[in-house]
Structure formats: C-alpha cells, structure tokens
Amino acid sequence: MKAHNISGIYNKHNEMDTHEPSTGVYTIGVASRMLGIPVTIIREYEAWGLVRPCVTATQRRMFSDIDIQIMRELRKLQKDFHLNLASLRFLAGCLPCWILKPCSLRDRKSCQVPFRTGVPCWECEDAVCKPTCEDCRSCRVYRSLANLSSLKQVLREALINFEGVVRDFVLEEV
After folding, report:
1. I need a surface site. Which of 34, 63, 78, 105 has the fewest CB within 10 A?
2. What are 121-173's pLDDT values in tens digits?
3. CB-neighbour burial class of residue 57 (10 A; exposed 0-12, middle 13-18, buried 19+)
4. 65-89 b/e with 16+ CB inside 10 Å = b?
C-alpha cells in the first residue's frame, strides 16, 4: 500500500502546505485511500459519532489528521479485538471528559455528561462545555480516541489528574 504524508498537503505550486492537525483537509475519498478502508466504513464511523469531520460551506465533509488517526485506531480495534461500532462508541463514551478537560468545579458539578454511559461527550448536546467548547478535533478528550487501545494508560493519566480535582473539590466544600 502506498504511504501517504498526513502532516501536510501540496498546493497548486507543488509546495508543502502545512496545517494544524485538527484542520479538515482530506475528502472522504482521500481518507478512504489513506486508510485502506471503504468509504462506507468512514460514513458509519461518522453516523455512530466516532469521528466529527469539518463541514465546509458547501456541506462537503473534510477530515483532519486527527480524524485519520482516530479512524486508523478504530479500524485496528475492530480487526484485533473484533469490536463492533456499538462497542467502539461505548468505549469512547467511557473516556472521562470531566477529568481529561480542565473544567471548572462549578461546571463539573452541573454537567450531566458523566451520567450518560456509553455516549461520547461530543455527542451530548447538553454538555456544560458545549456552548464554549473549542472545536472537538482540538479537544483532549476527542484526541484520546486516537489512543483508545491504550485506554488503561489514558485512564491512569486521568486519575492522576483527578486526585488534584478531588482535593480542590473537598477544600471547596469545607
């Protein structure tokens, strides 16, 4: 299979255009060829809320380097562990966004996302951070999908961060 450079694309002058990893630059056809998977699989990932491509003014979906990494990881989990899309969505929903994101204690107390088992935070319209949320592809929680097979490591790092949050929460309550 031909290797593809996902750190940049070439402009009309055949010069490398660099871009942010969260910027959508690949059409669904290009993403399909890069990943070696059918377009239908990519559409299913999107339908299940596992990837969130950029949408242009003309309603064209463009995938970022982050999206490509996530889809590569999802495909690996499907092949290695025979996981279906519902299982992948459930795992994505288990990512502790309330720990991974630097939310304020006030927001953490009022957010309902931790109680929505198996639903990724970026799919919850009533998430406290939604109105002020940065683009999902820039979010640490969404980016964690690219390392979903290392979920234990992601959770370990989150728990280390969570110790400080609990300490702050207890001090605020006292």
Report:
1. 105
2. 888 887 877 655 456 778 888 888 898 888 878 777 777 766 665 555 555 55
3. exposed
4. bbbbbbbebbbebbeeeebebeebb
* Calpha distance 36→66 (Å, rounded): 17
| The one-letter amino acid at 138 | S
DSSP string of 24-89, one letter each residue = --B-HHHHHHHHTS-HHHHHHHHHTTS---EE-TT--EEB-HHHHHHHHHHHHHHHHH---HHHHH
Is 137 in contact with 51 (CB distance < 8 Å)? no
User: What's the mean per-residue pLDDT of the chain?
Assistant: 80
